[in-house]
Amino acid sequence: MISVCMTSYDGERYIKEQIDSILMQLGEDDELVISDDGSTDKTLDIISSFNDPRIRVLHHDSKTVRTPFLLDKPTHNFEYALRHSQGDIIFLSDQDDVWEPGKVTMMLKALEHADLAVHDCKVVDSTMDTVVEPSYFRYIGVHQGVWNNLLKATYLGCCMAFRRRVLMEALPFPETKVGHDLWLGIVADMKYKTALVDRPLIRYRKHKDSRTTSGRRSRHSIWFKMNYRLAVLANIIKLYIR
Predict the structure, then answer these.
(1) b or e along 38-54 (b: 16 or more beta carbons within 10 Å of the residue's beta carbon)?
(2) Whole-Å CA distances, 65 to 77, 168, 173, 175, 216
(3) In sequence order, what are the residues at sequence separation of 6 or more whose Cβ sits closer than 8 angstroms to the Cβ of residue 9?
């Protein structure tokens, strides 16, 4: 069984196109788990309009995340979705991208020899008419390994698929300052086998309402980067000794 875990928040502009691209690649016994973080637009109405038994909608209370770090809310929304997933193979999905045909098949093949796989993607603009970067891998300089990704995180969650054992080792997610995709990648690199799939299997949409800075180089201050990496390092040490 495959579980696709998506988070949503005021995603009415793009979410239908994304869900369409996912459902056409899933079997009857697979599931799409969508954890909504309190949308106030028509996001939930659009999801409901599919009337598809493979879709399960959860309602995450963002008020339970009391830390001030910007990405903690989406990280723990993903954790909420993942905790409710049932599949042996798990894919992550943002609400505003589009999966390319054959993504699931190709990632399942990669997972025959790995526990977590990350594929390449095309970075596109809001209309998807303009390709901003034809290869995220080449743009960002993707690399494997715990310490490499501590120095420079290069795994995108929306490009990940992994076996349930990776998730069980990764739970619970660190409380703050460690993104869900970075954490899953670190756990997999540390304890299991990872693989890179050098094919752009989604169109990764970047627009003014995007909730992450992935897809473009970081403009954070040196102090922010040091503080962030120290927080990640502290959690890596905890993982080593537990």
Answers:
(1) bbeebbbebbeeeeeeb
(2) 9, 21, 12, 9, 26
(3) 36, 37, 38, 39, 43, 74, 77, 95, 211
DSSP code, position 26? -
One-letter identity of residue 31 = E
Residue the block writes with tokens 């891998």:
137
Successive 10-residue mean pLDDT values, the chain, 242 residues: 97 97 98 96 97 97 82 92 98 97 98 98 93 95 90 93 98 92 96 97 80 52 74 81 73
How large is the C-alpha radius of gyration of the chain?
A: 17
Determine how β-strand 194-205 pairs with β-strand 2-8.
unpaired
What is the biggest distance separating any 2 CA atoms in the chain, rounded to whole angstroms? 49
Q: Are the C-beta atoms of residues 6 and 33 closer than 8 Å to each other?
A: yes
**Cα–Cα separations (whole angstroms), residue 163 to 2, 126, 169, 234:** 10, 31, 11, 25
